[in-house]
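Quick one: structure for this chain?
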Amino acid sequence: MSLSFSALEVGQGDAFLLEKDGWKCLFDSGGSKSGLESLLKNKRINHLNLAVCSHNDFDHINGFLGILDTNSKITVDEIWLPGLFGSIIQYVMDNGIPREILEPEDYPIDDINLESLYDRELRAISCDEFEDNMPMYIGFMDYAHRDMRHKFWPYFRFSLKELSLLIKLKNIEKIAKLAYQRGCIIRWFEPVNGCAANYIDYGFTALNSKETHQIKKLKGVKEFIYALTLTDENKYSLVFEYAEANTPIVRFSADSDCTCQSVTPYPSNIILTAPHHGSEANQNVYYSIQGGDMIWVRSDCKSRKRPCAAFKSQANRYCLACRNRNFKTELRFEYDGNRWQHITGNSCTC
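Got it. Here's what it folds into:
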């Protein structure tokens, strides 16, 4: 058996590659639309069996927009997406882009929370029906944006907040559209409250979500804007663990503060990705997760504020780029049947 884990050097953001006996999974994709494809080509990788997009931050989703493009030479069998992406697309399919998206401050969302979207009965359609209707939607956003610019540009000067919402909406539409056009199997995951340990497939367990076979319809502009904002909320980004018989655990933390784990305590010699690139806002993860001899891996670029003290207190830690060193090198680990072996990259000296 051959098993390896790599933190890819994609510039800004997360992109982790898991390989087992020729099977390849890419978890998140970094912030560069063109850089990831070039990197994979240089590694002689032209096919991914599975891609997982944890949430809608540009430094996690943009690389997927590049490798899913119809001009890309990379093929992808299957992609896992947050269920809220489908809910947002379905809302636009039913109602168009609301004018209010340009004035989100007029629609306070403080009184809406995750429970209001997922702990009550919402209208829903099956994922199959949703994907069957996707051809009707392909290209709609391009026309809608042009129409919005024509109607509203003379009257509005977009703030960064408004532009951010439009970019989020465009990225959600594009990743689903491209995945559909490229013939990928699309599977949807909705967040759950608290911790979970839902086994999914291929050795993956979802720690803060569950697979859904329904796309839930949002009710009104207020819920639409809340859901669109939520798609890049760090604490709801998808967290998965990988482990099969006779393999160690690899935990993909994304940007979440999810502190749950499928086994308590963790067995020794496992790999965990640093949540939110080692941000202080996610420091509770380091104190809450139980286990010994853990390997913490931090990706992303150099930063004055990252990693936090909690990450630096870990005995066995690695950085793709340390704040006080002039290096940025891919991190790679290979499993020898007993332990993970560090192959390339640098231990953390932050």
